[in-house]
Design a protein that fits this description.
This protein is mainly α. The protein contains 15 helices and no strands. It starts with 16 loop residues before the first helix and ends with a helix.
Amino acid sequence: MDHSGHGMTMDLPPFTLGRGLEYSPDPYFLIGCLLGLGLYGWGVVRLRRRGDSWPVSRTVLFTVGVLTIALVTCTGLNDYGMVMFSVHMVQHMVISMVSPILLLLGAPVTLALRALPVAARRGSKGPREVLLALLHSRYLRIVTHPAFTIPLFIASLYALYFTPLFDFLMESTVGHAAMMTHFLAVGLVFFWPIMGVDPGPHRPGYVMRMLELFAGMPFHAFFGIALMMATEPMIKAYENPPASLGIDALSDQNAAGGIAWAFSEIPSVLVLIALVFQWYRSDQRQARRLDRAADRDGDKELAAYNAYLASLQARGR
């Protein structure tokens, strides 16, 4: 039975890392990855040609982010993910929690706003104006608000895996691709307000961002623990793995739960480190701005405060 859409049958040989990393492209994701890299590269080249700089680190982060998507969708991992729950969970965790973080740290929206040309005529709308309108739209305010992103992040686990919807999507490569696209989109809208690199309608303070980050992670851990502790297969699509794989469905499910649990911890730590670093840099920039302002006006605020203290002392005599 052709189940993967890559010209392979369900009778795959036992999984090894080498087989999992063999080139096996999904046309939809391959084109998407190449298009993403091409557009980002165009933006960087456009800035450089007009003499503007763009951090190399952001280009590297975005490129690695795209490559992580290709890693789980254009290799044998995509084939094995159709018949092995543990491999599918690696795909899910990478594309929903690792890829979005790397892509967002690459600041693609900021790059687009700087690289896209301004509309030729006043009042007309070009690509840059359309992007700005979207960034300030009510729709984006809703989909990036924690009241929406946190429940969506949680529902993408429980409402998908523990309902017939997952089995329905796994019946076709189109459904599987749609599921992976959904995972990526959910990760992007969840981490976008938290990472805070690109402009957006919802930009809370750093403490609130940390609270948003950890609000959804316990549910992620509970999901993994539920799979690890189950005494029977819970996902119909994986309850009868091909005999050629030489695996037990319950053991494979327990491994999938361990992967989900681990990924609730590792990306959280990485994001937390990035947030602390951003917070530190923000404080440093604020301190430099205050120092420059003090140099320009002779530190009028300090002089006024000293005068205020002197007046209080004079009154007390």
